[in-house]
Each structure stands twice: as structure tokens, then as C-alpha cells.
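Lab notes, practical 5.
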Amino acid sequence: MRAAFDKLISGAGLLLAIVFLVAGGMLAYASSYVAGEVKDQLGAQDITMPEGAALEKLPKADQDALKPYAGSPLDTGPEAKAYADHYIQAHMNAMSGGKTYSEVSAQYLAMTDEQKASPEGQQMGQLRLTLFQGNTLRGLLLYGAAFATMGTLAGYAAIVAFVGAAILLVLGVLGLLHARRAAPAAPAATATPEPES
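Output from the prediction step:
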């Protein structure tokens, strides 16, 4: 009975190891695919991370966040997030005095046609357009950063799945070996005495 139970548990462990191997392979592929796509799509934008004077004009916190990437091509998720949050956002805040696109847009839409036609109104309209474009670019870069993070997490999950598969494989084999040793030996044939005549 014990041998049958060991075989059942070991078989289930080996089956689970196969499931983990397949899942690990799929996760590793997903990680590799996402990393390649993020690099290709961000690289196609041909953006160089700010350096020198472009970096020095920013607030200190933004400079510190961008310094590790200064002068490099923007082609990774962390670079995309840093550029979106500490370069584009910093310029948008400087232009708008910290106002969001929705606040500037609401101010502009509340103007009369004469106010919109004035130099101040045209300036507000241009700021509204610039903030809209900046928010759009930020959003796209942050999507790239989010996908890069998901790809990295898929890579870690693949490693965990492969380690789990290896552990289950070893335990399954050990269980089968134990089941073999625990199997009851067939009873030895005993010679039956011949009846006396």
C-alpha cells in the first residue's frame, strides 16, 4: 500500500514538474519577447537621454534621476520612465507653473472668442496644445516602461518555475526509488513435503 501511495505522489510531482517546465519556457519567451519589443520600439524613436546643459537646467531631484542615463539612447523601460517623469514632466511643470493639462484646458475653454484671439489667449491655447502633446508622449513612454517591468517580472517567474520544476523532478525520482524499495518482496516459494506412503 505504501509503495502505491509513493508512486501516486511521485507521479503527480513529475507531472507538475512538466507543467512548471512548460510554464517556465513560456514565461522565458514572454520575457525575451517583451524586452526585444521595448528595446526596438523605444530605440526607433531615436531619443537621447539629456546631458550637459539640458540636464543642468532641471531641478536637482530630476537631475539626480536622469544622471545615470545621461547621453545614452533611450531604449529601456527604466530610461523611458525617468525621461517621462523627470524630463518631460519637469518641462511641462515649468511651462504651466505646475498646472495640469486639464486645468489649463478648462481655463482656455472658459475664455470668450475675443479672449482666445488675444495674445494671452493664443499663448494659453499653445500651452494647452503643448501640455496635451507632452502628456501623450509621457503616457506612451510610461506604457513602454510598464511593459518592460512586466517582461522583467516574467523573467523572474520563469526562473522560479524552472527551479520548482527541478525540485519536483528530483523529489519525484526519489519518491519512485523509495516506492521500489518499499514494495513488498514476493514470498519465497517453499517446498511442500511429499506425503509418506
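Observations recorded by the TA: The two ends are 44 Å apart (CA to CA). Residues 2-182 form one domain.
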